[in-house]
Each structure stands twice: as C-alpha cells, then as structure tokens.
Amino acid sequence: MGFSTDQLRYQYLDHIQIDGTPEGYFQFVALAMMGDLFNLYWHSLYNDEAIICSKAGFDQVVDEWRDFELSLYPALAKENELSEDFRNARKWIMDNIPTPAIREKREQLNFTPTVEFCEDRVIVRVIAFSKWKGLFKRTFQISKEFPHKLIKISEKIIEPYNCLVRF
C-alpha cells in the first residue's frame, strides 16, 4: 500500500491524543497546519500560512506582510533617504496592503475558529492567510477516537492574493 504526501506529512499527529475539548481539537488543527514550519530556509519560506483568530490577529499578520513587502526593496526602509520614486513605492505598499478586497473581508468575517462535534468526527474550521495564496478557510474533519485521523481537509479561498515574487 502506498502513502499519499499528506499521510506522510501528518504522520506525527498519530501520537497526539486530544482531550476531547473544543480547545484540544483546535490545538490539534493548529499543530497540523503549523507543525512543519520549523527550520525553514530559502524556498521553504513559501510556506508562510498564519492562522487568524481575531481582527487584531489579522492586523498583526498585515503588519508582518507589509514588512515582508518592504524587505524586498531594502532602500524603502530608509524613508528619509528615498528618491521620489521610492517614496511613491513605499506609499503604495502602505496604502495597498492589504488590498482593498482583503480589507473589506476583514470587516465582514468572523475570524473565530469553530469546532463542531458530530457523531464520529469533529469538524474544525479556521481562517488563515498566506502571501502566496491569500485569505482562505480550511476545514478539517478529525476522527473522535484515538488515534485521531485527519479524515478530510478542504480549503476555500476567500480572497486570493499573490505577493508577486517570481523566481
């Protein structure tokens, strides 16, 4: 029997026993999403997903996103030494990140993760952001019985975004 990439990616979760609370299932999902974000280097930094649980959390992600965009142009960091073109570019980044469409979604969305208990599984829904994908909702179906298995993972893009970095 062969293994899918996801089966191998999430294999370490087989050893995690959830305590049966909504917080426990959310923590399991957070580990599933963020557990392989250690020791990232160079092109592995594309995996930059951030779970957002509140509007304040969204604002923090936006601040980091702006810092990333500004870091692509080191000259933009020294605002007082900039040419007019660089000042305009810096202003554009500050005015357009997040994009107007994502800013509008910030006001419309409830970022609070949800945990729904069903007969044989638990469904956890989270909203996240990636500079390479945009704002998205990911839904996890997890078996209630230990060892807890990821039955299904689905994703819906709420508002797309791509940071425009090309290699």
Structural description of this entry:
It is a single chain. With 167 residues, this protein is α+β, with helices and mostly antiparallel strands. The protein has one domain. It contains five helices and five strands, in the order ααβαααββββ. It has helices at 5-9, 22-34, 55-71, 84-96, 100-108, and strands at residues 50-52, 114-117, 121-130, 134-143, 150-160. Strands 1, 2, 3, 4 and 5 form a five-stranded antiparallel β-sheet that branches. It is elongated and about 60 Å long. The relative contact order is 0.17.
What's a quick, concise take on this entry?
The protein is of the alpha+beta class.
What is the arithmetic mean of pLDDT?
A: 84
* Tally of separate domains: 1
Low-confidence residue ranges: none
Distance between the termini: 36 Å
Order of helices and strands: HHEHHHEEEE
Structural class: alpha+beta
Q: Mind sketching the topology for me?
A:
Elements: H1 5-9, H2 22-34, E1 50-52, H3 55-71, H4 84-96, H5 100-108, E2 114-117, E3 121-130, E4 134-143, E5 150-160
Antiparallel strand pairs: 1-3, 2-3, 3-4, 4-5
Top keywords for this entry?
about 170 residues, alpha+beta, five-stranded antiparallel β-sheet
